[in-house]
Amino acid sequence: MVALTQLEIRTYLPTDRESCRRLWKELTEWHRQIYHDQSIGGPHPEDSFDKHLEKVGGTNLWVAVLESVVVGLIGLIVDDQEAEIEPLIVSRPYRSGSIGRRLIEKVVDEARGRGLRFLSVKPVARNVEGITFFYHQGFRNIGQVELFMDFSEQWVGTKGLKLFHLQFNY
Known about the structure:
The protein has one domain: Aminopeptidase. It is 31% helix and 26% strand. The protein has helices spanning 17-35, 47-56, 99-113, 128-136; strands at 7-11, 61-66, 69-79, 82-90, 118-121, 159-163, 166-169. The strands form two sheets. A five-stranded mixed β-sheet has the order 1-2-3-4-5, with helices on both faces. Strands 6-7 form a two-stranded antiparallel sheet.
């Protein structure tokens, strides 16, 4: 368990770039693992952080710092009266220590302070840990579901997700 008195949640600084690239790569590795697909994110997934930073700007990113080490990252994509959390990453060794909850609290306060109407998050379907975490943070409304067909036949779905009494793979 992380001692919350030592944890600082602050706005992203340019000096955090490499730490955030490392966190982005870690998130991509998690997605590769749960989807059994090493191609997710390409050969340099950390480069996607730079694209995200360019899109949202540093003022819409916050980091969790513990003893001078960036251990978490959260961002907001703001569009008019709505915002989406993207990403939320807590480095695996620091999970279950309330860092994710503190990052969520930060962006919820930020979204409310900006007078936004909706705050959403879109975890990947197989991220059961993430979905459970977000549910316990108050994200209990479903606004949209994405369905797709795989014509390449490379999708190895896991049966088990039911929605409206319909069986889906995820």
